[in-house]
Amino acid sequence: MDVSAGLAKLFDALKLSTVPATAGAVLTGTLLFGPTWLIDALGMTETLKGIRPWVGLGFLLCAAVLLTRASVAAGGWVRKRWTWWANERNLRKRLNRLAPDEKETLSRFLLERRKCLKFPMDDGVSQGLAASTILFRSSTVGDMLTGFDFSIQPWAWQYLNKHPELVISDPRKLALLIERTAMADAVGFEEGRAPWEDQPPARDPFRRRMR
């Protein structure tokens, strides 16, 4: 066999997907390392004597394919986790260098116990925090009067709840945050309804009494 043709066939074999490679590894591994009674039951005892080197080569080839794919997948996972960790570390550093107006904006999320707030489109602070990927536009529906929805990123929400002092320096507000957090947890707080804002309905002074 021509060497170049053999290498070409080898490279084509390495393009096997995971499923055929796994099946090939199980089959050739069984023929190579299976017990004698199993080989006899399969009727492969005599046949295997003549093709054993090729079966061994097939096993090595399938094992190499599986090992290569596993290494690539593991490398991709490690690279993705490293990138995520590096990005989060940089963003956390950003939270430690907030301007006063940025702190005021982010403190609203904590104090109101909401992950989504409305801001005007011409609000530069919320736009800047969105550009820094601390906030994001959660809806494209809005207007110039009521504003547009901006949500806080999950990682920023968790980090600021662990370190509220980054955006709240007033001890009274910190105490209020602790109180509201406990209240929200106690009543099973649902996003969009603050339990401390629940008020009895105002009485209509123009409504006539029913006799």
SSE topology:
Elements: H1 3-13, H2 18-33, H3 36-41, H4 45-95, H5 100-111, E1 116-119, H6 124-131, E2 135-143, E3 147-152, H7 154-162, H8 171-186
Antiparallel strand pairs: 1-3, 2-3
Helix pairs in contact: 2-4, 4-7
Structure, described:
Helix content is 61%, strand content 9%. It contains eight helices and three strands; from the N terminus they run αααααβαββαα. A three-stranded antiparallel sheet has the order 1-3-2. A hairpin with a 3-residue loop joins strand 2 and strand 3. The termini are far apart. The C terminus is likely disordered.
Q: What's the mean pLDDT score?
A: 78
Instruction: Estimate the global geometry from the Cα principal axes.
Output: elongated
In the sheet with the most strands, the strands line up as 1-3-2
Q: How many individual helices?
A: 8
Share of helical residues: 55-70%
Order of helices and strands: HHHHHEHEEHH
Counting DSSP E segments of at least 2 residues, the number of strands comes to 3
Distance between the termini: 108 Å
The percentage of residues in β strands lies in 5-15%
Total separate domains:
2
